[in-house]
Amino acid sequence: xxxxxxxxxxxxxxxxxxxxxxxxxxxxxxxxxxxxxxxxxxxxxxxxxxxxxxxxxxxxxxxxxxxxxxxxxxxxxxxxxxxxxxxxxxxxxxxxxxxxxxxxxxxxxxxxxxxxxxxxxxxxxxxxxxxxxxxxxxxxxxxxxxxxxxxxxxxxxxxxxxxxxxxxxxxxxxxxxxxxxxxxxxxxxxxxxxxxxxxxxxxxxxxxxxxxxxxxxxxxxxxxxxxxxxxxxxxxxxxxxxxxxxxxxxxxxxxxxxxxxxxxxxxxxxxxxxxxxxxxxxxxxxxxxxxxxxxxxxxxxxxxxxxxxxxxxxxxxxxxxxxxxxxxxxxxxxxxxxxxxxxxxxxxxxxxxxxxxxxxxxxxxxxxxxxxxxxxxxxxxxxxxxxxxxxxxxxxxxxxxxxxxxxxxxxxxxxxxxxxxxxxxxxxxxxxxxxxxxxxxxxxxxxxxxxxxxxxxxxxxxxxxxxxxxxxxxxxxxxxxxxxxxxxxxxxxxxxxxxxxxxxxxxxxxxxxxxxxxxxxxxxxxxxxxxxxxxxxxxxxxxxxxxxxxxxxx
Length: 554
Fold this sequence. Notes:
- The chain has helices at about 5-10, 85-110, 135-140, 205-215, 230-245, 255-260, 265, 280-290, 300-315, 345-355, 375-380, 410-415, 420-425, 430-445, 450-470, 490-505, 535-540; strands at about 20, 25-30, 35, 45, 80, 160-170, 180-190, 250, 270-275, 295, 325-330, 355-360, 390-395, 405, 480, 485-490, 505-510, 510, 520-525, 550.
- It is of the alpha/beta class.
């Protein structure tokens, strides 16, 4: 007997201690005295602070998710915490105050007391239906502009472990920026998706890309189906298929379009798409463009997914109750805002049970997870053939651009029906060569252990950095093995303050707020790289104010 998840979170939350283990059993009485019927079949260990309940923090576990220990070959540890009640109240108050002052400033702008910099409808169009949505425009000019300096910072170097930023200032409260002519040197880069450190201008990848440029040039000037199909593209696709362990693959010049333009080619009217609630915008757009019926299940919640599958099988299409033409489950490998990893073994089990198709987006997980760097399928030790459509991008771990789709009995169909294949310009040759060279290094085909070393270094850096932040008392989200590390900030004022203060310490970070996240869950997102040294990670986790090194470019 032990404490059940229900009692720990509902009846007696004070029973949580610094290290609590949810014991699993089918039916019985937990130590709180309540009778429950349980279907947990996997022990789930959660790291908690012994005083976190005193801070008003509640634990948001995945207790509603069915765990099947037989599907997992190693522990699967993820941590999420609900926003503390006091922090949530203060956050809403902060947004409320900003909104009140926003309306006051709009009143002053209306009477020309304050200058209005925002785009407006032309005077002759004042009776037209507004081109801009009023509230979004309100949010932009009154809230976003206050912290706009934290985004779109121009860099002037390779986005490696360290980078150089162009210094800029604003004299009109972030409406416009002016470059000072100086460069902020050696900023530790914690924002780029450079997981394996292949974003570099020296080494084997850079040399190979230069050779490809000299041989093919930079642009192709045609689509693949016309005269833009180069031998280097064929070589790339064969290599990707071998890397993934699938029959064939297809490469595209843009990662976003790989999702948004190919999902409509795979599903249509009369089809059902079951999408995780935290799926990327490219997946959401692709699903909407397909014309399919879309139903959303709770993030990484297998009970929610299974319920939708059961309802789909039992009831069929609305009104007619005919069977769905096909059911497509759409998930990601690593969720880029939460740092969580898909419960792929359970998704595959459900997919097989209910005869659905599975679309897996490995944009962030390919190269970054698994002993061989082959993504979340490799991470869980699954058979690639269990995933019907394997999608990923070359923009993260490979230091390049574009995306791919791999599978069986699928690629020939996409070559004839995908809008990206038929109408988009072919991938740039030096970009294709960058992917080929970096992928061969990961696979060890270059005759060195550099690829294996980088995969191991990324894993070590991820474990170390997450442990450091957790020991310092920060609330971080996601899986212990995920190189995406969201650290919660919550309040709107902290978004701008955190980004600016980190830059003062020569650390470049990404801060994220509403509408990219829930309004009370603003965060800073760190992306760990194999190129980061232990000293860099220590500097980030224990920052001190130091003079920023700048150089004059005039």
